[in-house]
């Protein structure tokens, strides 16, 4: 992780409520016409009304070894309620973070209701505005072990490792210099994350049901920067180093109330506790100096989503969400999303 904060959790679900009135009856008809699938593909776009640069593009394909029934629960939770072995590929592009990533993952479900999962992700970082100005790649892999303790609930433990490194060496005629006189530079990034999460869908009589989700995770991360500059005027050849250690505690809670198979209204709570220790040294101050910072923040969110089942195989989901926090820096913007989905 390049920045001294936890990974963003901004891709919340949401909606255009105008479709609610005329689509519910059509959805029931379509459900009986074709009520299972093995292939699930989607393409999503999420943007910020206040900042058009804060946009995400997401595409995915997933294959389920057991047929996924659309008769159980809301449309959006069909795949979770299926409890089926699966594998998938995903692509994500973030305009704000100037990154793109590719991921492959799979989950195997045993007859005993235990399941294991693994994922690998390649992250391409094109952000040239931070301490390391060159494009570089990071790799992430993860493992998961979980258990389905009833037909609509699961709990799992997970671990993820993310790492990346890059180096620069000046050569005659090189056009890569981001600073005149730079002779050499190195960057290294490493993080380990582990945690626990649980999800449960509870059918209800007055509405379709409520989906509850909770996650706690802990991340230990480090970044190292080294720069060596050439002699310049009265200044001799010199070096600068920065060594950063970060720890993050993160709790995420969410509840989504499904009015029917298509429409949901939800709320979320997000707590982050961050401790940063940064050590700087140079040829001028080889003994170095240390800076320590601790902070915590509470984030809140409201969202709504609507799933429009256009035909037995094609659908569109519309979403909207609003985020708040306790730092008095709330924005007036909303996040809007559109997801196009095909199941067959």
Can you put this structure into words, describing what you see?
- This protein is mainly beta.
- The chain contains 2 helices and 14 strands.
- The protein has helices at residues 20-33, 78-82; strands at 36-48, 55-69, 86-94, 99-109, 114-125, 136-150, 153-169, 182-203, 209-229, 238-258, 263-282, 289-309, 314-325, 335-343.
- A 14-stranded antiparallel barrel has the order 1-2-3-4-5-6-7-8-9-10-11-12-13-14.
- The protein is elongated.
Please summarize the sheet with the most strands.
14 strands, antiparallel, barrel
The shape, in one word, is elongated
CATH class call: Mainly Beta
Total strands: 14
* Average pLDDT level: 84
What is the helix content?
under 10%
Query: Can you count the helices?
Result: 2
User: What are the segments in which pLDDT stays under 50 over at least 5 consecutive residues?
Assistant: 1-33, 173-178
Named CATH topology: Porin
Q: What would the keywords be for this entry?
A:
mainly beta, Porin, elongated, 344 residues, signal, disordered N terminus
Topology, please?
Elements: H1 20-33, E1 36-48, E2 55-69, H2 78-82, E3 86-94, E4 99-109, E5 114-125, E6 136-150, E7 153-169, E8 182-203, E9 209-229, E10 238-258, E11 263-282, E12 289-309, E13 314-325, E14 335-343
Antiparallel strand pairs: 1-2, 1-14, 2-3, 3-4, 4-5, 5-6, 6-7, 7-8, 8-9, 9-10, 10-11, 11-12, 12-13, 13-14
